[in-house]
Write a structure and sequence with these properties.
By secondary structure, this protein is an alpha/beta fold. It is about 35% helix and about 25% strand. A 5-stranded mixed beta barrel has the order 2-4-5-8-6.
């Protein structure tokens, strides 16, 4: 009855099904791992933001040092004077609503008592009339200030963030201490500070960046379940199609035999 399964068409269909099953299983686990990574990231951010602020140079103690993953988003403090001569902006950044494109304003802060220099992301400003022009930026406070912010690691080139040469003066695509060390010659401490408060408070400043979202777990678990449901449907679908084929063949065979003819006595 099911000898048709040995036909070329059905053997190819069976091979495709056997290949799809492990593929969809792996895709499900891929989404599961993305879900777990998102949950771990949210927990890290929540723990970091709840920690007490500590001096910046106690967490990023050497020029060029990388910020450990478990210290990102930690509240930090820093006291010193801004170096507006080496201020720059970072292109293609959105405001807190995510709707407007503009720039991040990054100004080096020379720490008091010779503690080194740290980059400070002072916040967001809108784009000017032309992408080639330096945007209107509120001046950094003069004199000694004490800052509070979130510790961030240097940005690296990714799919959405790409380093590119030939940009207008003092405009960059990344916040990178290595890049700015070459530009300014200053020995910058690793990572940078994402500003949340300044003492004394300035009269005007860029729009401060909001805390990162650490409650949204994303759709990855739902996607994982969908892939595994699809995995279960593959053999079920193959069996259903095979049974339907067998039924159609039986009906065709019965129709070919024709109706029974009564023989007169």
């Amino acid at each position: 009855m099911y000898r048709f399964l040995l036909s070329r068409r059905w053997l190819i269909a069976l091979l495709i099904a056997l290949l799809l099953i492990p593929t969809t299983i792996r895709l499900g686990f891929w989404q599961l791992h993305r879900h777990e990574a998102r949950v771990d990231r949210n927990e890290l951010v929540a723990r970091s933001l709840a920690a007490e602020p500590v001096p910046y140079d106690t967490l990023s103690a050497a020029p060029g040092s990388a910020v450990p993953k478990d210290l990102t988003w930690r509240p930090v403090t820093a006291t010193g004077q801004y170096d507006p001569a080496h201020e720059f902006v970072v292109r293609k950044r959105t405001d807190s609503s995510g709707d407007k494109i503009g720039y991040f304003v990054v100004t080096p802060l020379v720490l008091a008592d010779g503690g080194g220099t740290v980059l400070v992301n002072r916040g967001w400003v809108p784009s000017g009339t032309s992408a080639a022009d330096y945007p209107a930026v509120p001046a950094a406070p003069a004199g000694q200030v004490t800052l509070t912010g979130r510790l961030r690691a240097d940005e690296t080139a990714t799919g959405s963030l790409k380093d590119r040469a030939g940009l207008p003066d003092r405009q960059f695509n990344l916040i990178s201490t290595a890049q700015q060390t070459k530009e300014s010659g200053a020995a910058l401490l690793g990572g940078y500070l994402e500003l949340t408060a300044t003492e004394p408070a300035p009269a005007d400043q860029p729009e401060l960046l909001p805390e990162p979202n650490h409650s949204d777990i994303g759709p990855h678990m739902a996607y994982a379940i969908q892939w595994w449901l699809f995995t279960a449907m593959i053999p079920v679908g193959f069996v259903v199609m095979a049974r339907r084929e067998a039924k159609d063949r039986r009906q065709e065979a019965a129709g070919a035999e024709g109706p029974a003819v009564a023989v007169p006595a």
